[in-house]
Amino acid sequence: AVTALSGSGPAYVFYFVEAMMAAAVEMGLSAEQGKRLALATFDGATALAAQSDDSPAVLRERVTSQGGTTDAALQSMRGDAVAEAITRAVRAAQQRAAELGNEFG
């Protein structure tokens, strides 16, 4: 589980940043602006999560206004089963780590 989360985790974050950058370009920003904004967003969100005693779910709820832009984005992600896709990806990494462990002992 540690390898699936921490070892492979940076690639998950980079993948999300890539997608945010692509969306930024699609909406008329430069790739550099998209990168800067996406990274600043991750920096701020992870710093807040690290400093807070509240769960990520509570923090997410606090920054989501019902019927607002964040709510629209989260509804889109739920419709696309993003959370489930992430869970499947982490499980795939865990399974592959186990296979490699068995193969290389």
General description of the model:
It is a single chain. This protein has helices at 2-7, 9-26, 31-51, 56-62, 69-79, 82-104. The chain is built from 6 helices and no strands. It is an all-alpha fold and 105 residues long. The radius of gyration is 16 Å and the shape is globular. It has one domain (2-104): ProC C-terminal domain-like fold.
Number of helices: 6
Q: What is the number of beta strands?
A: 0
How many strands, what sense, and barrel or not for the largest sheet?
none
CATH superfamily: ProC C-terminal domain-like
Provide the CATH architecture.
Orthogonal Bundle
Question: How big a fraction of the residues is strand?
Answer: under 5%
- The assigned structural class equals mainly alpha
CATH topology, which one? Answer: ProC C-terminal domain-like fold
Proportion in helices: over 70%
